From TrEMBL:
This is Uncharacterized conserved protein YbjT, contains NAD(P)-binding and DUF2867 domains. InterPro entries: NAD(P)-bd_dom (IPR016040), NAD(P)-bd_dom_sf (IPR036291). Residues 12-203 form the NAD(P)-binding domain. Gene3D superfamilies: NAD(P)-binding Rossmann-like Domain.
Amino acid sequence: MTKSIKSAIVIGATGLVGRELLQQLNQIQDCEKITAVVRHEDPKLNSLKKVQQFILEDFLLLNDEDVNGYSHAFSCLGTTLKKAGSKQNFYIIDYEINAHFADLFESAQTHYLLISALGANAKSRIFYNKVKGELEQHIQGLNLEYVSILRPSLLLGERPERRLLEDMTQKLYQKLSHWVPDTFKYKPVTAAQVAHTMVEAAQTQTEKFEIYDNLCIQNSKRGK
């Protein structure tokens, strides 16, 4: 049984995908309430009429009352080892906060959607992929009404902060993109495509648990 997006709460709302997701949710006629959990007020979000900002310095302080009553919960929160500054900080952001957010929706009538990553594997020797895989395992073990996990490859778009390696990769890809077939599973995707896939999953998923791989995200018409 599908469920329309009546109300949504989003963490990672000021990131590349989070901002795009808020814009798309704001355009859904039936969506009455959108809450963006942010560490500091973001003036750019004030232009989105349905979006309310919930300011909380430490996302681990989110509680049951804060998230009660939402039809959908979107987790777009993620960072890089370089930006986090250490493996410990990366683990707190990418695993602990996301896991805590998901825990709050156990036994609730809420569809939980997470942006993971292509290559997520709890047994991986690559720390980034290992953490993503461990988070997926944790979420699969929870009693959630619906779960959608997206595994995008490199994300294309203008980030609020500089990521040198990703910026270089984007420029290289733009020069070579016409040589990359649509069936290539590692093909970069846009933030708009990822957000659109999340919205589609939120509105149409009927299975209790679904993984949307990078090829699925590539097929999203919006943002190409």
